[in-house]
Specification:
- The chain is α+β, with helices and mostly antiparallel strands.
- It contains eight helices and four strands.
- The chain has a four-stranded antiparallel beta sheet.
- α2 (about 35-50) packs across α4 (about 65-90), α4 (about 65-90) crosses α5 (about 105-120) and α5 runs parallel beside α7 (about 175-200).
- The radius of gyration is 21 Å and the shape is elongated.
- Residues about 1-25 have low confidence and may be disordered.
Length: about 250
C-alpha cells in the first residue's frame, strides 16, 4: 500500500472545470486583442485557479461573477484532491486498481489542505508575443512546489505507528464479511487520517524545485471568448506541484 510510484493523473473533472469558464469568459476587445490582454488573461486565470484571488478575474472579463471565479477555484481544488486520493489511497479488496473512498469529512479536509498548498504557488507571467496566426504566446515561469517530495520522505516514518497497530490485529479469526467490514470501516479511514496528517505536517516547510518555463497559447473566438487549450492547461497544472517525489 506504499504508493511511492504515484504518478499524477489529470482528472476530466478538473480540466473540464477550467475550460468551461474559459470558453464562455468574454472581454471587450473591439480594438483587437493586445499582448497585454493575453498576458493578463493568463495571470487572472492562474490567480483564480491556484490562489483563489477572484477580483482580477472578475474585473478582466465582462461576463463573469465572483461566484463563477470561486466555482472555478473550488473545482480545481476538488479535482486535485481526487487525483491525490486516487494515487495515494488504500486499494479496495476487490480491485487493486481502485481505492476505498475517503469519507466526506476527509475529502473536505484534503481540499482545505490543497488550498493552503496552492496558496504557496510561485509563478510569474513573463511576456506575451503575438503570432502570425493572431494567437498570443505567453511565457510563464514556475517554481514547482516540493510538498509531495516532503510527503514521500516522511511517508514510512509517518505510517510506522499505523502499521504497528494494525499488524497486531487478529484478522485470522474474522469471517470474510467481518474482515471486509473491518478493512473498509476501520483500517481505511485511519489510513486516510494518517496520510492527511503527514501531508498537513509538510505545509509549513514547503519549498520550491528548480524554476521551469512554459509557453501557452491564448486564443480568441469570433464572439470574443478568450481561451487556453486543455493541453496547455494540463501542462501548466503539472508544473505547479512536482509529483515526481524526487
Amino acid at each position: 500500500m506504499n504508493r511511492k510510484n504515484f504518478g499524477k493523473r489529470i482528472l476530466t473533472l478538473s480540466l473540464a472545470a477550467l475550460m468551461v469558464l474559459g470558453l464562455t469568459a468574454c472581454r471587450d476587445t473591439s480594438g483587437g486583442l493586445s499582448a497585454d490582454d493575453a498576458k493578463k488573461c493568463v495571470q487572472v486565470e492562474m490567480d483564480t485557479t491556484y490562489k483563489g484571488e477572484f477580483s482580477g478575474f472578475v474585473d478582466f472579463y465582462n461576463n463573469v461573477t465572483t461566484s463563477d471565479a470561486k466555482e472555478q477555484y473550488d473545482a480545481n481544488v476538488e479535482g486535485e484532491a481526487f487525483i491525490f486520493l486516487d494515487g495515494m489511497g488504500i486499494p479496495t479488496l476487490e480491485d487493486q486498481n481502485t481505492v476505498v473512498e475517503a469519507t466526506d469529512l476527509q475529502l473536505h479536509r484534503l481540499k482545505e489542505l490543497y488550498k493552503q498548498i496552492y496558496a504557496k504557488s510561485d509563478y510569474t507571467v513573463v511576456s506575451s508575443t503575438k503570432q502570425e496566426d493572431g494567437t498570443f504566446s505567453v511565457k510563464v515561469t514556475i517554481r514547482p512546489l516540493d510538498v509531495f517530495t516532503l510527503l514521500m520522505e516522511d511517508y514510512d516514518a509517518g505510517f510506522e505507528a499505523f502499521w504497528t497497530k494494525f499488524d497486531a490485529v487478529d484478522t485470522d479469526s474474522m469471517s470474510n464479511d467481518e474482515f471486509v467490514t473491518w478493512y473498509n470501516e476501520t483500517l481505511a479511514p485511519e489510513f486516510y487520517d494518517t496520510l492527511l496528517n503527514i501531508l498537513e505536517e509538510q505545509i509549513p516547510d514547503i519549498g520550491y524545485k528548480e524554476e521551469k518555463s512554459i509557453v501557452i497559447q491564448v486564443q480568441q473566438d469570433e464572439d470574443g471568448s478568450l481561451y487556453i487549450s486543455s493541453e496547455d492547461l494540463q501542462n501548466l497544472d503539472r508544473l505547479i506541484i512536482d509529483y515526481s517525489g524526487e
